[in-house]
Amino acid sequence: MKNITHHNLRVRSVFGVIFFACFYFLPLMTMAQNVDLFKQQDEQDKKDAKETTDIVTSTFKTTRIVNSQSIENTGAGILDVKISHRFGLVNTGAYNFYGLDQATMRLGLDYGISNRLEVGIGRSTYNKEFDGFYKFRILRQSTGRAAMPISLSLSSDAVWRTIKDQPTAYAINSSDHFNFTNQLIIARKFGDYFSIQFVPTMVHYNIVPTKATPNDLYSVGTGFRIRLSKRVNFTGEYYYQVTKFQGTYDAMSLGFDIETGGHVFQFFFTNSTGINESSFITQTNSQWGNGGIHLGFNISRVFTVVKHNH
């Protein structure tokens, strides 16, 4: 009887140890298995992300930062109507109501031929200029399988100046009223809150003021966007002139982009009177330091002309 009792105790002890081991180690094994499953899922998600390509969008909120072309294009089949307005110089004083009595304007129509190609035309009151341009997206910033660290675009525009010429000792041909701008736009978006671009630029004039002035003028532009809220961005641009006309200064603008429904409203200060590329880059004749700045705004309103199936 005593042997049977000891045997039962040993059996109970063995079962107790087994039960304790199962109770203690089984959750740890299950937890380890879950961790392995989560790790495998994360690795699979990373693998899937590498097998797809995601295009980075909204580097800037519209196709122009202030005056300068941005890396953005008007979408395929979309017509973008732009109204650009610059008041007079702030330092003209109270008599001109600090520039509000004067104004320079441009009306522009930009259209997206495709998601990579945009064309546009415009008319400015500054020197009564007509302009036309195209912008082609060469590279698009992306992540994943075909990762690309930057966006790259080529932009070219032509300007026809129609203001009457002053009397000169030499004949001026109609072709002398044209000038051309070529730009390479290099941009990158860093997360949702900051974007930057660099713009090597060449402006060609068919006629220049003096023989000592080169027909080809070179500059380097830069622009940025800082997101302040879902609908408001702080923006700026600056163009450093490598070669320039005598008496001109580098163009600089600072402002805000405000998204309101179907359009983008841009409010800013700039020292440039001209609005198209050749005018604001090479013909800016006032400075920020002495109040030589203009209050201005741009309004961009888009319309769908042709619907594209994506």
From TrEMBL:
Pfam families, A to Z: DUF5777
Phylogenetic classification of the source organism: Bacteria, Pseudomonadati, Bacteroidota, Sphingobacteriia, Sphingobacteriales
Record key words, sorted: Membrane, Transmembrane, Transmembrane helix
Protein's recorded name: DUF5777 domain-containing protein
Record's keyword annotation contains Transmembrane helix: yes
Residue spans crossing the bilayer: 12-32
InterPro entries: DUF5777
The keyword Transmembrane appears for this protein: yes
Residues covered by the DUF5777 domain: 60-303
